[in-house]
Amino acid sequence: MAVPPRKALTGLVAATFTPMTAKGDVNLSVIGPYVDYLVLKQGVHNIFGKFLQGKVDHVIVHVGCLSLRESQELARHAAGIGADGISVISPSFFKPPSTGALLQFLQEVASAAPHVPFYYYHLPDVTGVKICAQDVLQGAQELIPSFQGLKFSSRDLMDFGQCVNSSPRSWPMLYGVDEQLLSALVLGAHGAVGSTYNYMGSVVNGMLAAFEKGDVAQARKIQFQTQEVLSFAFQLGFDLAVNKQLMLVLSGLPLGPPRLPLLQGSQEHAEQIRDKLERTLGLLTPNCCAMGV
């Protein structure tokens, strides 16, 4: 039986950073203030992260692992805590040799939480799995009754456009390359998932609003501004560790270090990107003390 559709998943989804202690444990005490920051400061009401009932509209829990059994265990846990959806990335050490093999893996994970909406997370540049997302979606419609959408994190806009064109209109098509979001909106993206929406959500929400109103010139202006910032950041080596450090600098939230094998991001680079954000987008470091952080 197919999963009944829930409230439409649209707009921005923050790919959240995991708050960590110095010893490498998850710092659960930061979760509440973090969500408050996203909702109140950035206007972001959907997250990839831990379930917090009543705080946000949607919480999508990523459960993909190299191990099928671990993925299934996490899927069952997500269902048990009331998550609004689960997302699964392809295994990346022993890579699926075909679309059929990947679909079989996804089907087995989905079967552990059959009543929870299931989203495929397409991230070929990181996983090294070059299977077209369109091929996965076409097979998923029959094999996975709970399948309800896609997080597409690739610059291949032709593949993304074909995913939108060939999928049921009820499936959310979420784009994951922040610097190309406007192009994806033109192709029919329902929303976007990205780490920069943790601190640029308010700005990008302005771009979404302009696009919805048909003000393409304003939407393009905002996209060009975010591209200017991200281009500058990429030149400094904008990896996950630096991105998390930047979030700490901008929000004041005690997010802690990244998890090994990633090393602490450069404070200097984070501050340089912060300055670029302020010059280009007018984003100022908020006073998190007001939120009890």
UniProtKB/TrEMBL annotation:
<dbReference type="GO" id="GO:0008747">
    <property type="term" value="F:N-acetylneuraminate lyase activity"/>
</dbReference>
<dbReference type="GO" id="GO:0005737">
    <property type="term" value="C:cytoplasm"/>
</dbReference>
<keyword id="KW-0963">Cytoplasm</keyword>
<feature type="binding site">
    <location>
        <position position="193"/>
    </location>
    <ligand>
        <name>pyruvate</name>
    </ligand>
</feature>
<comment type="subunit">
    <text>Homotetramer.</text>
</comment>
<dbReference type="InterPro" id="IPR013785">
    <property type="entry name" value="Aldolase_TIM"/>
</dbReference>
<comment type="similarity">
    <text>Belongs to the DapA family. NanA subfamily.</text>
</comment>
<feature type="active site" description="Schiff-base intermediate with substrate">
    <location>
        <position position="151"/>
    </location>
</feature>
<dbReference type="InterPro" id="IPR002220">
    <property type="entry name" value="DapA-like"/>
</dbReference>
<keyword id="KW-0456">Lyase</keyword>
<dbReference type="Pfam" id="PF00701">
    <property type="entry name" value="DHDPS"/>
</dbReference>
<comment type="pathway">
    <text>Amino-sugar metabolism; N-acetylneuraminate degradation.</text>
</comment>
<protein>
    <recommendedName>
        <fullName>N-acetylneuraminate lyase</fullName>
        <ecNumber>4.1.3.3</ecNumber>
    </recommendedName>
</protein>
<keyword id="KW-0704">Schiff base</keyword>
<keyword id="KW-0119">Carbohydrate metabolism</keyword>
<feature type="active site" description="Proton donor/acceptor">
    <location>
        <position position="121"/>
    </location>
</feature>
